[in-house]
Amino acid sequence: ELERMCAAVLETGAPVTHEMRLHGVGWVELRLAAMSGDELVATLRDTTLRHTAEEELRRERQQSLALADEQASLRRVAEAIAHDATPDEVIALVTRDAARLFAADSARVARFDEDAIVVVGTWGDDAPPVGTRFPREGGRTIARVARTGRSARVS
């Protein structure tokens, strides 16, 4: 890469700037410019702080977009309730938006009764129908949530 850059500067006389990551060090900007004849001058500038700041800005933007999506979802639910949506319509909206916010292929909302877990909302292709009942015992993730009252994760 460096040889190609040097040849281009010597051939055209125009300076070339290239940014690269130095593993274990950070980011540098290399600028090559022609002097006289076949001489070149190279300058290096540390751009690590700029790259770090840009990455932080990207993360903050993603977090802001995620928060805006969550707020929009809450607004949709509030508007549905304000317009007298039925409980089933509100649960369907919450289920769909939860799947979308978590980038999931499907989602379920369940109610924990004394003797069973009852599906009250579904979204997605592989979702069990509303009204499906599962025992509170057993190895299902939702059963673990019902027993412990704590969140559980499926990878």
Q: What brief labels describe this structure?
A:
155 residues, alpha+beta, 3-stranded antiparallel beta sheet, 4 helices, 26% strand
Could you characterize what this model shows?
Helices cover 45% and strands 26% of the residues. The protein is an alpha+beta fold and 155 residues long. Strands 1-2-3 form a 3-stranded antiparallel sheet, with helices on both faces. It has a 3-stranded antiparallel sheet with strand order 4-5-6. Helix 2 (48-82) packs antiparallel against helix 3.
Q: Helix amount, in percent?
A: 40-55%
* Helix-strand sequence: HEEEHHEEEH
* Low-pLDDT segments: none
- Cα-atom radius of gyration: 29 Å
Class from helix and strand fractions: alpha+beta
List the helices and strands and how they pair.
Blueprint: H1 2-12, E1 16-22, E2 26-34, E3 40-46, H2 48-82, H3 87-101, E4 107-112, E5 116-123, E6 133-135, H4 141-148
Antiparallel strand pairs: 1-2, 2-3, 4-5, 5-6
Helix pairs in contact: 2-3
